[in-house]
Request: fold
Amino acid sequence: MKATSRMLVAGLSLAAVLPASAQNEAGASDKGGAEAATLTPVTVTATRSSRGRPKTAIPGSVTVIEREELIAQSRITADLGEILADTVPGLGPSTQSLTNFGQQLRGRDFLILIDGVPQTTPLRAVSKQLRTISPASIERVEVIRGAVATYGFGATGGIINIVTRSGESVPEGRRLSTGFGATGSLTHPSDSLGAYLQQAISGRTGDTDYRFSLHAESTGGGFNADGRRIAPDAYGQGGGRDDSTELDFQMQLGHQFTDDQHLRLSLSRYRIIQDSELVTDDNPDDPAFGVPGPPKGTDPGIRNTSVSLDHEWRRLAGGTLSTQLYYQDYETRFSFFEGYATGPGQSELVSEKLGLRLAHDRGLWGDASIVYGLDALRDETAQPLLDGRTSVPPIEQLSYAPFAQLEQPLGSRLLLRGGVRHERVSLDVPTFTNETADPDVRSEVAGGSLDYDETVFNIGAVLDIAAGQEVFAAFSQGFSVADVGRVLRTISGSGSADSVAAIDPEAQVVDNYELGWRGSFARFSAEASVFLTTSDLGATFDEQLNISRQKEEIYGVELSGDWRMHPQLTLGGSLSLQEGEADTDGDGSVDAYLPATRISPPKGTLHLKWQAADGSWDARLQATRFADRDRSPYIGGFGSNDIDGYTLVDAATSLALGPGRLSVGIDNLLNEDYLTATGQVYGSFQQGVPGRGASLRVGYSLDY
Reply:
């Protein structure tokens, strides 16, 4: 932790010489001084309630990243995975690439939502759901940690709910925001330069509000601490952020028809394409560095379109009816692959979803309330090769799930919450031949239907033990359909199955037990929780990258806190410790540790931020430490190796300049030389992946 100590000393020295200041940014207003010290209740909307719920009334661990924090982090990096890793306890380290494979929440998968629209592809999990929106378009992020089924299956580790920006809070009239800047490596400025531009217009006319925004960014090459070029597609998962162009368009239109009815239309279009003239050095003794040589195939990347129509009708049948109709069209193109399951060739995943959510929130007797409703979804996913061959055939999912959630206060200090959700899922797979398998063992696989039927529960309590303090205890369940596409991609090559019914992968139900405390005082706030999650059917890759199904137990501790040392100076941090084991011999007891693809190494964060009264200047210094993880025996298979820890220190500042604001951020300030945690896992499979050296991000923004 030497680097962390240096960060703290430097931060205190910096704070001693800074003048009184605060911050502002295009499209946001951040206030310091007495106003910043005024605490307002934190409301969490990812609860299916039309009103949301105060964080203090939720029996579970919740992190809410407000717009102010997102602005500060975006000065350092535009990588949402890295931003969340630095701010969310229990979330694993970023891969610094398009893939978030190995970045788990409490050792399990998380469900990503953008304005309630699911971004995951559960029928063929490709782990790229964190790369479907730019941080510039986000108003806040709500993270519910622990298995939960509030929005359906796939949230065995929790929910990350992204709320986009709207014009709802803009007063009558029009407001424009412009931002632009440059990025680059400090260890190798040439070939690393990039630029970004963002433009937004928002406003209100009578009962109609609107917001249109566009973020465009071009990113140059990535370089490690020694100035060596990192391979553009070091993970071989379909491109990275290096040598890429990114476009993010967001639209929000809202209209208040009556005092009781409101309609909102949201549109999100995101694209990132990598165009590089480098390939990965094939020396297995070296990390994954880039060398000249045009990559085979066409440019990899992601295209995502999401549309949602939300209607709220208050005072209907004694409560509020919330209706959402949504559509998503998602495509990700992988890199050309020479061998293994889909090679040689280049595949792409295409997924199309159409869904409906209904929720009625109403009072019952006394202060009791209930939210009940129905979710329905049609999802069609396939993974063909660009040359026309079949790898994963079109899989059609039809699902529906009624649910109910009851809230009952008992006196003035105790709140009980409990609910149930019944999920029915039907998957239809056509008869197909996997044309990427070895022709000598290739066989036709008879199609069929796979049906899942699960009922999951949750119950929890929050007890106010003193002013500003509460303890909570909770039991919740999450439900996950197996990665059916991953299984179908390989069964025809083995010759061991000739029908979908023969493989019939079982669903996974995860039980989450949690106990925690929250406290908020005049200058100090903190949270602490301990958790245990168990499942009879795990989801870990074996040596052949097939999924092993075995009993798993994951447990951990999460601590976080903030101390306002001075009205303009805050010191904060967090600590996340987690571990996981599996039953490899089937005797009912866990006997080996889960790999690094599932369990994050111990993580500690520390930040020091200055936010003064006159709005002219602000500064932030932060560090994230991923410690060593050395466990034995591992369960075997992909990712079962030790992790060498590393410490990343970042710094950012902004000041009022002319009509706008100038910002400067440095990622990896101390130029740490390291391999990313997931990159170390890949070192046993192909080549280790270096982390980025010191990088600079400079921007200017203004509102008018």
